Amino acid sequence: MTVERVPGHRVLVGALVVALVAALVGVGLLWRDRDAAEDRADRSTALVDAELAAEDAARAAVTRMTTYDFRSVEDDFSWIDEAGTDKFRKTFTDAAKPVIAYIRSVKASAEGTVVDSAATAADADHVKVLLYVDQRIRSRGKKGVDIDQPADHHADDPPGRGLARRRGRRGQPGRRTRRRLRPDTRLGT
């Protein structure tokens, strides 16, 4: 028996080998892309988890920081000793002393509420959280009257020295102005 060679047989075999190699390369690239997509999904999930955890922690901390009662103000301000760096603790411990005395003298209480928040994670260990907080301060010495006016304070300002945008009289929306607050204007000293 003799085998007859078909003209172009070598070209056909060569084309099949090239197609097989191309298919294997394509499968390898798809496999790599699938692994990269899974890695991106894992990183994205880790970032979302970090954002949610940081947002929950920030909400709890700020609510605790902005809620107090004159009867338990020392305990209510204990977050100062539990939070931040040594410099933070010293700054806020020094700033809190006259505030605590004033809260007791006017028999004030406050309730802080986080109205809205958002978080952005740079990575799983570094998350920025933005909070919009409403704080209602009341004094027992004044029937049903708030002792504060609504104001927006910048978070980077030192205690008692923030820029505030004030509303009009009696908390009604009005022309907003900016002014620098001095400790004596807020503490009554």
Explain what this protein looks like in three dimensions:
The protein is an alpha+beta fold and 189 residues long. Among the domains are: 45-133, no CATH class; 149-189, no CATH class. It is built from 5 helices and 6 strands; from the N terminus they run αβαααβββββα. The strands form 2 sheets. The chain has a 3-stranded antiparallel sheet. Strands 4-5-6 form a 3-stranded antiparallel sheet, with no helix packed on it. The longest helix has 57 residues, at 9-65. Mean pLDDT is 76; it is low at 149-154 and 156-189.
- Provide the structure class: alpha+beta
Radius of gyration: 32 Å
Q: Major sheet, described briefly?
A: 3 strands, antiparallel
User: Segments where pLDDT lies below 50 for 5+ residues?
Assistant: 149-154, 156-189
% residues in beta strands: 15-25%
Helix content: 40-55%
First-last Cα distance: 116 Å
- Strand order of the main beta sheet, please? 1-2-3
The number of helical runs is 5
Number of strands: 6
Order of helices and strands: HEHHHEEEEEH
Short description:
Helices cover 48% and strands 23% of the residues. With 189 residues, the protein is of the alpha+beta class. Among the domains are: 45-133, no CATH class; 149-189, no CATH class.
What is the strand and helix layout of this fold?
Blueprint lengths: L8 H57 L2 E2 L3 H4 L2 H4 L3 H21 L1 E16 L2 E14 L11 E3 L9 E4 L10 E4 L2 H5 L2
Antiparallel strand pairs: 1-2, 2-3, 4-5, 5-6
